[in-house]
Amino acid sequence: MKLKSSRPFSELSEILYNPSAKDGPEIAYWVFSEISKGKWENMTVTSAGFYGDEFTKTYGHYHGTNVVENYLLVSGKGVLQLQKKIVENETVVENRVESVYMVQFEKPGEKISIPYEFGHSFSNVGNEPLVTFDDWRSGHTDHDYEIIQKQKGLCYYLLRDEHAGIKLVPNPNYTQHPKPIWITPNEFNELF
Ligand SMILES: [Fe+2]
């Protein structure tokens, strides 16, 4: 196993609800690769905490390669935001998405298969590190992150809310905000 990358707070600011948030974990998350010779290739450890009122999260990306990605929850509690891209004239539309799912991971062992059309980012909504495994071996290009960077995040920001627990705030850089569908990993797997 080796440390593949780590994402410091300073690199995450540009895609936060509040880019000038001052407090929060110094390292948002670490990605380790070659974790096994079997199914799982990477492990992501996302710190618990907040940047301003926003839950710590991964940067988020699309995949340029038509391969399904599988995720497994090892420990912690997370919400995986999935947004389905719109392609027009063979070009990805940057400021609109077709649908948005908020997949709630609560029990270790829960798994999801993400079709390639879905951009994704994990928010750590618990009070301990969020640990996930995935089987992505197809690499990334800068382009995988470019749209998320331009749009300053995915379609919604996940903020803490005293009463509801999680408040979803629409990202104003998208011109439409499909109603988010809250769903379990199993329910999502049955749909796609
Ligand atoms: Fe991915």
From TrEMBL:
Keyword Cytoplasm applies: no
The keyword Aminoacyl-tRNA synthetase belongs to this UniProt entry's keyword annotation: no
Domain Glucose-6-phosphate isomerase prokaryote: from-to ranges: 43-167
A cellular component annotation (GO) from this entry: cytoplasm
Top-level lineage group: Bacteria
Record keywords, A-Z: Gluconeogenesis, Glycolysis
Pfam families the UniProt entry points to: GPI (PF06560)
Pathway membership: Carbohydrate degradation; glycolysis; D-glyceraldehyde 3-phosphate and glycerone phosphate from D-glucose: step 2/4
InterPro entries found in the cross-reference section: G6P_isomerase_prok (IPR010551), RmlC-like_jellyroll (IPR014710), RmlC_Cupin_sf (IPR011051)
Protein name: glucose-6-phosphate isomerase
Provenance organism: candidate division WWE3 bacterium RIFOXYD1_FULL_39_9
Phylogenetic classification of the source organism: Bacteria, Katanobacteria
